[in-house]
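Fold sample X.
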Amino acid sequence: MALEIELSQIEHRYEALRIHERTRLSQLTTSLLENGQHTPVLVVRVAEDTERYVLIDGYARVAVLKRLGRDVVRALVLDLGEAEALLFAHQLHSHRSRSVLEEAWLLRELVEFHRWTLGSLAQKLGRTKSWVSRRLSLVRLLPEVVHEAVNEGRIAAHAAMKFLVPLARANRADCIRLIAQLGSEAVSVRQVERLYAAWRTASEEQQKRIVDEPHLFLRASEEIKHPEPPLGSRGYKELPSLIKDLSVIAALCHRARQRIEALGGVRRDDVSRAFVRARLAFGSLTALMEGSDDRSGHAHGRLALAP
């Protein structure tokens, strides 16, 4: 049954099961302003209060309507329990691309809060128990701060699954610290990849620097990033200049060491900060030169020089 209900009557119990995509919100805002609301949101009645509803699907539409100052929303009231309604909405939008994390969040909700068994859930989804179990293992491995960052759109779900899962598996504390230090600023998949690749090949002390100052590391890596020239391109003409640059770096390191020794044990804060920037820059260069091969044998981020 479809009807108009007041936004104040809606409970947002399952908002954490959705990723907040800023681009999609902007597109929805334009669409609602120009065309109005055509597709109703999905709700179920609160069992103990027939005047209140739990929002099942349509969180982005409701968020945009609130932003536009609207008071009501067109809704389809499902005659189902909350768990069944969540599964219905998931299957209704099976054509829509969902991230692995969004699927895993839904599974965790149905298993941990609605007490569905893995077997019954797998049967309803047309999946195997092992598929459900693997999804749950992934979502439980990631620290909650990562889930929050993905939910808020600060970290892409793909980046979390590909780079933060192995980071959390190797060092959960560093994963938590990295997300905390990234703060509210959104980072790209490529930036998360660079942070993880550098962390994986760094010493323990360098790893601490990376997770403590990830934005500084990213800025330093941007300054020295050079794409690998394809075979036969003019890129190889840059090799003499590159070799010269590396020789200059070696000479600068030698001269800096002499000047540090000349300080006679005196340490200045501005010198220490400059040294941190230099070390992060060199760490990024090291990660670029020593990046590991992928399964297909191609180098990622490594300058392949013939001997």
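Fold sample Y, listed below.
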Amino acid sequence: MDAPETLRYSKDHEWLRTEGGEGVVGITAYAAEELGDVVFVEMPDVGRVLAKDETFGVIESVKTASDLFAPVAGEVIAINEALSDAPELVNSEPYEGGWMIRLRLAEDNAAEALMDAAAYRATLGD
């Protein structure tokens, strides 16, 4: 299963890419595949402060709806507005155009607590 080496991963199938003191969050290709065709993504308001593992939104597909969880603590500084009109980007580009939120990280080293790509793939049985 596709899991880029440059990202960190949560047990809930969210990924985190750190960029300085910020982090970009989305769901993994595995999660997107399990959900099926994504039809709606509910996102938090910019400015909301999230605790690690706090629900920050909901993703709906033709099969189900699932909560989205913050892999790290931080303040939401941007949401991916493109998902309002094109939620299918989560399926087609889970690690690029399908990102969901950008956070100002509460802790600079927060990503270290998440799994690397090899550990994440091991949880999937790959």
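Sample Y note: Residues 104 and 125 are 32 Å apart (CA to CA).
Also: The chain has one domain: 8-107.
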